[in-house]
Design a protein that fits this description.
This protein is an all-alpha fold. The protein has helices at about 1-30, 35-45, 50-55, 60-100, 105-115, 135-150.
């Protein structure tokens, strides 16, 4: 009889240990995903203090270090691959910008993306003029802009007079 009780306790203990191990894995996974201790506790069904103790344990700290090292290696591989692709991307963007058949909107979007993503100063997307212009001044500005666009081949639509 005592042997049966010991056997049942051992089986119960193993099940509890497996559950505990799964909880540790869940805490580690959620921590690596960036959840706070409160969020982890809510999802796992334990207290935030228990999450904190778990994350502070030497075994979990070692596991976190190992996982972070793996993630760091993966990030470095991705970064390396991006570095390899940069020249191809720049060449493709160059082709778009010099392609006479590419629509102006595509060229403009490409140029803006290059400036925005490569740290350049992007051109203003809109211009606010704090001045009162006459209709003649507005028409002169408009005419100069149309002429500049026509001379560079960037005029997308001819204005009908």
């Amino acid at each position: 009889m005592k042997r049966d009780i010991d056997s049942k306790m051992a089986v119960g203990g193993i099940a509890k240990l497996q559950r505990l191990q799964q909880t540790h894995k869940d805490i580690i996974r959620l921590h690596l995903l960036g959840l706070s201790n409160k969020e982890i506790a809510k999802q796992v069904g334990i207290t935030p203090v228990a999450v904190s103790y778990t994350l502070s344990s030497p075994i979990v700290q070692a596991e976190l270090k190992e996982k972070n090292d793996i993630l760091d290696d993966q990030v470095m591989l991705i970064k390396s691959r991006i570095e390899e692709l940069k020249p191809l991307a720049v060449e493709m963007l160059h082709k778009i910008l010099v392609d006479d058949n590419a629509p102006f909107s595509v060229k403009r979007a490409t140029a803006m993306d290059i400036l925005d993503n490569l740290g350049g100063e992007s051109a203003p997307r809109s211009l606010t003029i704090n001045n009162n212009l006459t209709i003649n001044e507005i028409n002169e500005i408009k005419a100069r802009a149309i002429e500049a666009a026509r001379s560079t081949g960037m005029l997308a639509i001819e204005e009908v007079q």
